[in-house]
Amino acid sequence: LSPSAAGNLHPGVEQKVVFITARVHPGETPSSFVCQGIIDFLVSQHPIAKVLRDHLVFKIAPMLNPDGVYLGNYRCSLMGFDLNRHWANPSPWAHPTLHGVKQLIIDMYNNPKINLEFYIDIHAHSTMMNGFMYGNIFEDEERFQRQAVFPKLLCQNAEDFSYVSS
């Protein structure tokens, strides 16, 4: 990626960031495949991948629970924590990956030269078919509608994605 082509990497220019995390639950192996597919696409020579790289910075944490994955756990870390339940106050000692990711998000939020455009946390479901998304509930109708754009686009362009299940 040449610096001249990447408008988002010029000094002093606001960086638009997409942050992606996966595999907070060790048993959700499909999330690793989805994350790997995203990475493979983003580094490819596909014209859309190039446009995305030219306009966005992608920060990707492909495995938030490596110790739980290594141990073959289904939901918990080495210490028996379901990490997805500790985002509010992650401990640097007990939940180091969450603590690091949350600190990075806070640092980006506090940096006036960075705009976190999108956060995707990839999971898998033990019984639901197709791809689907959960989103936040906002009282502000504009924010609520804005977060629905991505799932609606996926539904129109990916036959394995179900907007109805989102």
Automatic annotation (TrEMBL):
Residues 1-166 form the Peptidase M14 domain. It comes from Turnix velox. Belongs to the peptidase M14 family. GO terms for biological process: proteolysis. Transmembrane segments: none annotated. InterPro entries: Cytosolic_carboxypeptidase, Peptidase_M14. Keywords: Carboxypeptidase, Hydrolase, Protease. Signal peptide: none annotated. Its cofactor is Zn(2+). One of its GO terms (molecular function) is zinc ion binding. Coiled coil: none annotated. This is CBPC6 carboxypeptidase.
